[in-house]
Design goal:
Number of strands: 11
Structural class: alpha+beta
Helix content: 25-40%
Largest sheet: 7 strands, mixed
Strand content: 15-25%
Shape: globular
Radius of gyration: 22 Å
Oligomer: single chain
Number of helices: 12
């Protein structure tokens, strides 16, 4: 924070004995208690950057509130962030404000979508991001509070509050916080940020508009093909068992033990993606609306004018679960014991949906 910079946010004088209760009464929490953002705490947070507190990062839908450095710092304090996390929080907000991420749609859909934050590079170890055991769970301040800061920013700057503008049918616990570090040290593959064009020594955040993770157990497969089929056919139920193809991206979080199986057979990430695309397919007769359930929208969407160049589908035509191999993003995370991977289904994709977005910290 520059020495001459001033803070401009509204000060609230209170006679309340408990400022936490005051913040509850003003509707400024995610349901859990927040840290009162005193001026001293906000200034300590701002000392982690030399950017002007009034610099505008972007706007957050659906209310399109102004996400300035100062407003972001206030919410980072409320989330419980250590000041050393603040540059990462700023990069997260920069990614969320990119048009292609479509934070407005994610915040108002009835699908219960939520940003998943993936952290790569040296910053993981510098600020203590957990990438190992319980990688997507509780217990680590960096993961918990960086993800929570974005949620509070969505609520307090974006105005996305349940029962008001946010109308998610179900919601899910990962909406409180969903921040994971890639376990690059246990991965046989290049990390996500290198795949996306950044250097290995750079630190990045990647945002994915998804749902809660689906854990996939496989302790029996001992070769890559068996394991890929286990993962793929479990993911075949994402969205709905008849959503072939999905109309969004998917993040596959491979645990280190499963990653070793792919490594031993010499499979690259692209090998795994291509295999899932080619093998996880079902015939049209099983996907028609009304067959084992009314849903069947995925196949129906293929019958549009834009698809007239294709041969008419027959009952034997096989449809892939994943639109293209590149619609599957793969990272490695989790502890080194236990053969549990996970899949995170995405919100709507394409030009009208959300695209995975990466920013340098």
């Amino acid at each position: 924070m520059p020495e001459t910079a001033e803070l401009r946010s509204q000060r609230t004088e209170t006679q309340e004995d408990d400022p936490i209760e005051l913040l509850y009464s003003r509707g400024l929490t995610d349901g859990l208690p927040v840290v009162p953002p005193t001026e001293a705490r906000v200034k300590r947070m701002l000392e982690a950057t030399d950017r002007d507190p009034q610099e505008l990062i972007g706007t957050i839908g659906p209310n399109y509130g102004r996400a300035t450095i100062e407003k972001i710092a206030i919410n980072a304090v409320m989330a419980g962030c250590h000041p050393s996390y603040f540059p990462t929080v700023l990069a997260v907000v920069e990614a969320a404000c990119e048009d292609q991420f479509c934070i407005h749609g994610i915040n108002v859909t009835t699908f219960s979508a939520s940003p998943m934050i993936i952290i790569n590079g040296p910053i993981r170890q510098q600020i203590g991001v957990n990438c190992g055991h319980n990688a997507m769970g509780h217990g680590f301040r960096a993961n918990a509070t960086i993800g929570r800061a974005l949620r509070l920013i969505i609520i307090n700057i974006g105005g996305a509050k349940p029962h008001e503008i946010t109308k998610a049918t179900m919601g899910h616990p990962a909406q409180y916080t969903f921040c994971v570090g890639e376990n690059e040290e246990e991965s046989p593959w290049e990390p996500l940020h290198v795949e996306r064009g950044f250097r290995a020594d750079q630190s990045t955040v990647t945002l994915f508009g998804g749902h809660s993770p689906l854990q996939i157990n496989d302790h029996a497969s001992r070769n890559a093909e068996q394991l890929a089929l286990s993962l793929g056919w479990t993911m075949a139920g994402l969205w709905n068992h008849k959503n072939f193809p999905l109309f969004s991206d998917t993040v596959l979080v491979v645990c280190p033990e499963h990653a070793k199986t792919f490594k031993q057979d010499g499979w690259s990430k692209n090998d795994l993606r291509q295999f899932l695309y080619e093998k996880i397919r079902r015939p049209l007769r099983e996907l028609r609306p009304g067959v084992n359930g009314g849903e069947g929208a995925g196949v129906s969407m293929l019958r549009t004018d834009a698809k007239k160049d294709r041969e008419p589908a027959t009952d034997d035509t096989l449809f892939p679960k994943f639109p293209k191999p590149e619609n599957i993003t793969i990272i490695v995370a989790g502890g080194t014991a236990g053969r549990f991977s996970a899949a995170v289904q995405g919100w709507a994709g394409g030009n009208a949906g959300s695209k995975i977005t990466t920013k340098v910290i």
